[in-house]
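Subject: Sanity check before I submit

Could someone independently write out the C-alpha coordinates for this chain? I want to compare against mine line by line before I put it in a report. The sequence has 160 residues.
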Amino acid sequence: MIPLFKKYLSLDRLIAIALFTASANVLAVSHVGGEVPYENIEATVIPLVDGPKTILGQSFKYPSGTPLINAFNINIPVGKKTSLHKHAVPLFVYVVSGEMIVDYGSKGKRTFKAGAAYIEAIEWCHIAQAVGNQPTKIIGVYLGQEKPDQIKPETCSKPN
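---
Independent answer below. Compare away.
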Protein backbone atom coordinates (compact mmCIF):
# COMPACT_ATOMS: atom_id res chain seq x y z
CA MET A 1 0.00 0.00 0.00
CA ILE A 2 2.79 2.46 0.84
CA PRO A 3 4.57 2.17 -2.58
CA LEU A 4 1.22 2.74 -4.30
CA PHE A 5 0.66 5.78 -2.05
CA LYS A 6 4.09 7.18 -2.93
CA LYS A 7 3.54 6.54 -6.64
CA TYR A 8 0.20 8.32 -6.94
CA LEU A 9 0.16 10.75 -4.01
CA SER A 10 3.54 12.45 -3.91
CA LEU A 11 4.16 15.23 -1.39
CA ASP A 12 3.66 17.95 -4.01
CA ARG A 13 0.36 16.40 -5.10
CA LEU A 14 -0.80 16.23 -1.48
CA ILE A 15 0.15 19.89 -0.96
CA ALA A 16 -1.61 20.87 -4.20
CA ILE A 17 -4.73 18.98 -3.09
CA ALA A 18 -4.58 20.66 0.33
CA LEU A 19 -4.15 24.14 -1.18
CA PHE A 20 -6.94 23.52 -3.69
CA THR A 21 -9.23 22.29 -0.93
CA ALA A 22 -8.32 25.26 1.28
CA SER A 23 -8.98 27.69 -1.56
CA ALA A 24 -12.38 26.22 -2.43
CA ASN A 25 -15.30 28.38 -1.42
CA VAL A 26 -16.61 25.92 1.16
CA LEU A 27 -18.49 26.47 4.39
CA ALA A 28 -17.46 24.94 7.70
CA VAL A 29 -16.29 21.33 7.94
CA SER A 30 -17.72 19.64 10.98
CA HIS A 31 -15.90 17.00 13.00
CA VAL A 32 -19.11 16.27 14.90
CA GLY A 33 -20.63 13.70 12.48
CA GLY A 34 -20.46 9.96 13.05
CA GLU A 35 -21.11 7.85 16.10
CA VAL A 36 -18.46 9.49 18.30
CA PRO A 37 -18.28 13.30 18.06
CA TYR A 38 -14.75 14.68 18.05
CA GLU A 39 -15.09 17.13 20.93
CA ASN A 40 -17.51 19.31 18.93
CA ILE A 41 -14.67 20.81 16.91
CA GLU A 42 -15.48 22.77 13.80
CA ALA A 43 -12.97 23.76 11.12
CA THR A 44 -13.67 26.65 8.75
CA VAL A 45 -11.85 27.02 5.45
CA ILE A 46 -9.61 30.08 5.10
CA PRO A 47 -9.99 31.06 1.43
CA LEU A 48 -6.78 31.86 -0.44
CA VAL A 49 -6.68 35.05 -2.50
CA ASP A 50 -6.03 33.89 -6.11
CA GLY A 51 -5.47 30.29 -4.89
CA PRO A 52 -4.24 27.77 -5.84
CA LYS A 53 -1.69 30.02 -7.59
CA THR A 54 0.57 32.71 -6.17
CA ILE A 55 -0.78 36.22 -5.67
CA LEU A 56 0.64 37.08 -9.12
CA GLY A 57 -1.02 34.08 -10.78
CA GLN A 58 2.13 31.96 -10.92
CA SER A 59 1.83 28.18 -10.88
CA PHE A 60 4.19 26.54 -8.43
CA LYS A 61 5.27 23.20 -7.09
CA TYR A 62 6.88 22.06 -3.91
CA PRO A 63 10.70 21.89 -4.12
CA SER A 64 12.23 18.43 -4.38
CA GLY A 65 14.48 17.10 -1.64
CA THR A 66 13.96 16.70 2.09
CA PRO A 67 11.16 19.05 3.18
CA LEU A 68 11.95 22.00 5.40
CA ILE A 69 8.77 23.72 6.56
CA ASN A 70 9.13 26.70 8.87
CA ALA A 71 6.37 28.86 10.29
CA PHE A 72 7.04 32.39 11.54
CA ASN A 73 5.12 35.02 13.47
CA ILE A 74 6.00 38.23 11.65
CA ASN A 75 5.31 41.66 13.12
CA ILE A 76 5.72 44.75 10.92
CA PRO A 77 5.49 48.04 12.86
CA VAL A 78 3.17 50.77 11.51
CA GLY A 79 4.80 52.55 8.57
CA LYS A 80 7.73 50.09 8.37
CA LYS A 81 8.74 48.81 4.93
CA THR A 82 10.59 45.59 4.23
CA SER A 83 13.63 45.70 2.00
CA LEU A 84 13.16 44.85 -1.68
CA HIS A 85 13.26 41.05 -1.63
CA LYS A 86 12.02 37.83 -3.24
CA HIS A 87 11.25 34.27 -2.19
CA ALA A 88 12.63 31.14 -3.86
CA VAL A 89 9.99 28.79 -2.43
CA PRO A 90 6.23 28.87 -1.82
CA LEU A 91 5.29 31.04 1.16
CA PHE A 92 1.79 30.81 2.65
CA VAL A 93 0.87 34.16 4.23
CA TYR A 94 -2.00 34.74 6.68
CA VAL A 95 -2.63 38.30 7.89
CA VAL A 96 -3.64 37.96 11.54
CA SER A 97 -4.19 41.67 12.21
CA GLY A 98 -3.50 45.06 10.72
CA GLU A 99 -3.15 45.93 7.07
CA MET A 100 -0.30 46.01 4.58
CA ILE A 101 0.37 47.08 1.04
CA VAL A 102 2.72 44.96 -1.06
CA ASP A 103 4.33 46.64 -4.06
CA TYR A 104 5.09 44.14 -6.84
CA GLY A 105 6.69 46.74 -9.14
CA SER A 106 5.44 46.32 -12.72
CA LYS A 107 2.64 44.00 -11.46
CA GLY A 108 1.16 46.74 -9.25
CA LYS A 109 0.29 47.01 -5.56
CA ARG A 110 -2.00 44.77 -3.50
CA THR A 111 -3.60 45.57 -0.15
CA PHE A 112 -4.09 42.82 2.42
CA LYS A 113 -6.20 43.18 5.55
CA ALA A 114 -6.69 40.96 8.60
CA GLY A 115 -8.04 37.56 7.57
CA ALA A 116 -6.44 37.56 4.11
CA ALA A 117 -4.49 34.45 3.10
CA TYR A 118 -2.40 34.00 -0.03
CA ILE A 119 0.67 32.37 -1.55
CA GLU A 120 3.39 34.99 -1.99
CA ALA A 121 4.99 35.62 -5.38
CA ILE A 122 7.96 33.38 -6.17
CA GLU A 123 11.18 34.83 -7.62
CA TRP A 124 9.51 38.25 -7.91
CA CYS A 125 10.95 41.29 -6.14
CA HIS A 126 8.54 43.15 -3.85
CA ILE A 127 8.28 45.44 -0.81
CA ALA A 128 5.68 45.19 1.96
CA GLN A 129 4.61 48.07 4.20
CA ALA A 130 2.37 48.08 7.26
CA VAL A 131 -0.28 50.77 6.90
CA GLY A 132 -3.09 51.96 9.14
CA ASN A 133 -2.93 52.60 12.87
CA GLN A 134 -1.68 49.24 14.15
CA PRO A 135 1.21 46.88 13.39
CA THR A 136 0.61 44.17 10.82
CA LYS A 137 0.89 40.68 12.27
CA ILE A 138 1.41 37.83 9.84
CA ILE A 139 1.89 34.09 10.02
CA GLY A 140 4.25 33.00 7.26
CA VAL A 141 4.75 29.32 6.42
CA TYR A 142 7.71 28.63 4.12
CA LEU A 143 7.55 25.38 2.14
CA GLY A 144 11.20 24.76 1.32
CA GLN A 145 13.76 22.00 1.35
CA GLU A 146 16.67 21.25 3.68
CA LYS A 147 19.55 21.46 1.22
CA PRO A 148 19.90 24.06 0.04
CA ASP A 149 17.92 25.92 2.72
CA GLN A 150 15.79 28.26 0.60
CA ILE A 151 13.72 29.77 3.39
CA LYS A 152 15.56 33.07 3.85
CA PRO A 153 14.30 35.77 1.47
CA GLU A 154 16.83 37.05 -1.07
CA THR A 155 17.59 40.77 -1.37
CA CYS A 156 16.87 42.33 -4.77
CA SER A 157 18.86 45.15 -6.35
CA LYS A 158 15.98 46.49 -8.46
CA PRO A 159 12.22 45.89 -8.83
CA ASN A 160 10.76 43.63 -11.52
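---
OP: Matches mine. For the report I'm noting this point. Residues 86 and 125 are 5 Å apart (CA to CA).
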